Amino acid sequence: MKTTAFWSGIVLISLSAVALADTRNLSADGPPIFQAECGSCHIAFPPQLMAAEDWKRVMAKLDKHYGEDASVDERSRHELEQFLVRNAGSASTLGVATTQANALPRLTRTAWFLRKHRQVSPADWRHPKVRTPANCAACHRRAAEGRFHEREITMPDGRRWEDR
Ligand code: HEC
Ligand code: HEC
């Protein structure tokens, strides 16, 4: 049994490596308005972490954005959508990002995201400095630069992930 789990782990890792070449560095050359419009309330999320169809759904409802109004003028909206779609990840690698019908998609709910974070404990997710998985920078110190390397993770209680 153990051996099977081990090998299926290897298969999963190599599959995701094909579509998301290096998931430790997800910086994308976005237009300047990307940081300004999409990086003020939370980090400007890496486009690679959601599929094109999901980005389109987010961009179609900016006025009702997870309880906030994140609307921008139509020209900016179009430019941002083009950028996100062009750099989107593949749906088959990531898995669907939606939990309920009509709910906006969440990149923190894809099978890919959950797998990458399966070693994070419930206590760490609930920590007052984290509160929501969308708060990437609570653990990934350089998330805003698109950097997610293991060496750059500090858990909310201050321990460095690589020292675990
Ligand atoms: C006015 C503040 C605000 C702005 C501006 C904003 N967002 Fe958000 N966004 C939020 C909030 C609040 C959430 C929900 C966070 C949570 O549930 O933890 C969210 C969640 C998201 C999520 C889902 C994250 C998850 O949980 O997986 C995506 C994707 C997203 N935003 C993309 C964008 C994009 C793209 C832009 C720019 C067009 C943008 N946001 C601009 C406030 C904002
Ligand atoms: C509670 C802390 C925490 C939060 C919040 C968090 N992560 Fe992580 N993340 C981790 C840990 C721990 C790992 C696993 C590192 C390892 O062992 O490789 C990880 C792994 C990753 C990886 C894989 C890195 C690699 O080596 O391939 C990516 C990409 C990533 N996270 C992105 C995000 C994004 C984007 C967000 C926000 C939407 C986020 N994370 C939120 C703790 C967190």
Automatic annotation (TrEMBL):
Keywords: Signal. Pfam families: DHC (PF09626). Residues 1-21 form the signal peptide. This is Cytochrome C.
